[in-house]
Model the fold of this input.
Amino acid sequence: MRQDIQGDNFGVLRVKRNILANSDIGAIFINRQASQGKDYNRTMGVDANLRIHENYSVNAFLAKTSTDGVAGKDLAEKVSFLYHDSLWKSLTVWTDLQENFNPEVGFTQRTGTRFVRHRSDMYIRPKGSRFVREFNPHILVNYFMDESNRLVTTNNHYALQVFFHSGASMEVHFDPQFDRLDAPFEIRRNPLIPSVTIPAGKYEDYFYSVELGSDPSKVLSANFALEKGPYYGGNKNTVNLSGAFRPSYRFAVEPRYSINRIALSSVVVNGVAGQSAIFSTHLFSTRISYYSSTRMYLSALLQYNSDRKQLTSNIRYDLIHHPLSDLFLVYNEARDTSGAGKTDKSFTVKYTHMFAF
Done:
């Protein structure tokens, strides 16, 4: 029996104005309204980008959502500070996403959290070196807290990246992590076999990694990355391989392959506690891009996930009809290869036009 699906009407309004010497302010309003009934979701916000000095800038926004049947705790706030010169770059970001902040026409990270991010980079160019063009030591720290300021997650990154005169690069890094699970975490859920659930608790992990890359400006280029370290009381090994074939400035093929092998102990496997589990996930993808001109391009992304037995495709056409104004035609498909025969398809048309005043 056919069931009618209720439609939605969407609207987006964005205004922006330059101020001072090199700064801007703006506002946005996004609306989703059910074609029948009163179901709605609205997002409104203001933002500012203030470049107060050649080396300093401040970015901030304040946003609020309004959802049918939901009231209170629906704000989002963000402030970031950037310093940048020829030797040093430092960025600090503070964000607060209240638990009922719900921009349905868009995307947001997990709500009900406050987090601080900081990244610092140094750019050291040795004089007289025949091989090394630049050393880039850098650190990245992420602290996630709940609304009572209790630490929930940390993701840190301490790295040394080296760029060579040949165009190749290398990076080694150490990434300590902390995760507080207040409830069991289902890392693999049915119908995946085995289904695996990690018990609640506090987990302190880390991993080491080495990454190697050839000159990306060549017709053929390749990248390799290896990660290894503890993972929720077990261990995880990851290998990433990627490459690119660019015979001309108009055309490119970029294949990618990754494998994750995870071994866990004292977890819940298929509903039975205190078990061990070993499983691997393979991910294959290829991006194909063709630029017919500076104003028009066609791209396709094909991806296969061995866990989900799913082949997905995304085909996008973009026509820049005016400066900063686009017409997008997008086709998406998710095809089940397990034999179930389920296929999801969608086609989207998006038109943007910038009005300068």
Observations:
- The chain has a mean pLDDT of 91.
- Residues 211 and 225 are 4 Å apart (CA to CA).
